[in-house]
Amino acid sequence: MVKKKDNGIISDEERKACIPKLPHGQGTVTWLPERGQYSYKKTVEGKRRIIYGGTVKEVMALMNQLEKNADKNARQHEKITLAEAMYDWLDKYKKPKLKKTSYDTLRKTIASRIDGSDIGTMRMTAIDSDMIQEHLNMLNEDKKLSYSTIKKCYDALNDFYRNRTLQGKVKINPMLSVEMINKENVIKKTKEIEFFEEDDIKKFIEEASALLSWSRQPKYQYGFCLCANIYLGMRAGELLALRWRDVDFKKGSIYIHENLQLVSNNGGVPKQVYETQSLKNYQNRHIHMNKMAKHFLKCQKEYSKYTKPDDYVCCTQNGTHAAAAYLSSNIKRIEKAACTKVRTYGTHIIRHTCASLYFKKGVRIELIAALLGHSADVCRSTYIHFIEEQKKAAVGLIDDYEVDFTKED
User: Which of 186, 246, 281, 369 has the fewest CB atoms within 10 Å, counting from its CB?
Assistant: First the structure.
């Protein structure tokens, strides 16, 4: 609609006529009658931007300020180090979708393997694939870290640069030509799985399930739970999170669906707190109790003050959940008193012992993985020693068909 000039209002045609023709590459200014405003469209730092204003002078001034800010941000981006950029990526893009334990693990990887190293203190924009490859080689050759530790660093860098490339902050992804070190070329060899052999199992169970002669109370607060877990193979966090409502003595089964893990308490005291987390889908499982597992869990319930459905199976004197450190302390004391040959005080020895029992009985790898809450691939890589023993035993099964080559024709 055309407005009359004698009313003091400039018409749409006159507003369009006063728009300057900008040089190529400088964008376009347009009058929008429906909005009663001018728009200024221009590509700034690779992105199409639009500014609105009441006059041509106003939109051009606003676009000029936007370009200055974008240029300032670009200069700051050029100065940011790799470690700083990775922390920023972690908090903006990874934190919303990771469990706290996974977030903590990734932050520790950045802090210990990137931040403080030569590559971590360099400007992100100055880093190329050769520098990243040299860094991974250094973690192997100089630091002599394990394959899994180097792989975590490689995966973090790979994920980070893929994100930055998709955002346009990195033009060419340097990780495309970076090679993860082959497992056989890693200097530090994977530590062998430690577990109790048959004689140690007997010694451990006898000591762990002992009662005090003067009070007829359990000698060890978590002894019965540890004995049961030799036949259940739960992770320490799964055992800590287990409640009596999850144990069905009639059906002889246990429902494992939660994990109790230490996570960072951001800015709080103490620095770490326990948090109950759900498990991954393939880790949720029902496991059946054999006679021994059922017996020891019944003993645990018999001697416990806390036996309501919501009470923890493995609990403290005041009914709260136990801590992994408490289990490790009990294991240490039991091993020492029982004089076991193996003396490793981590909670994993109980789970590994359970796995060893399955492997020695020839149970299929897929079934063992399902019972332990692993994927089959993880189970194979973790218990490769047991698998090799199974192969040797399998070869021995066909000895009955050997031919006597000593006979003469």
Answer: 281
Closest by CA to 256, choosing from 242, 269, 276, 267, is 242
Query: Which tens digit of pLDDT belongs to each residue from 186-222?
Result: 998 777 789 999 999 999 999 999 999 888 899 999 9
Under 8 Å between Cβ of 56 and 29: yes
Cβ atoms 174, 156 nearer than 8 A:
no
**Distance from C-alpha of 127 to C-alpha of 84, rounded to nearest angstrom:** 14
Distance CA 336, CA 330 (A): 10
Three-point CA angle 233, 246, 256, nearest 5°: 40
Tokens 């009985």 sit on residue: 361
pLDDT digits (tens, 9 = 90+) for 223-264: 999 999 999 999 999 999 999 999 999 999 999 999 998 888
Question: Would you say 366 and 359 are in contact if contact means Cβ atoms under 8 Å apart?
Answer: no
**Please, is 380 exposed, middle or buried when counting C-beta atoms within 10 Å of its C-beta (0-12, 13-18, 19+)?**
middle
Measured between alpha carbons, how far apart are the two ends of the chain, in Å? Answer: 117
- Give the span between the Cα atoms of 366 and 352, in whole angstroms: 16
Q: Helix/strand/coil (H, E, C) string of 342-358?
A: CCCCCCHHHHHHHHHHH
d(CA 350, CA 205) in angstroms, rounded, equals: 11
Partner residues linked to 32 by β-bridges: 37
Q: What is the enclosing helix (H) or strand (E) of 262?
A: strand 258-264
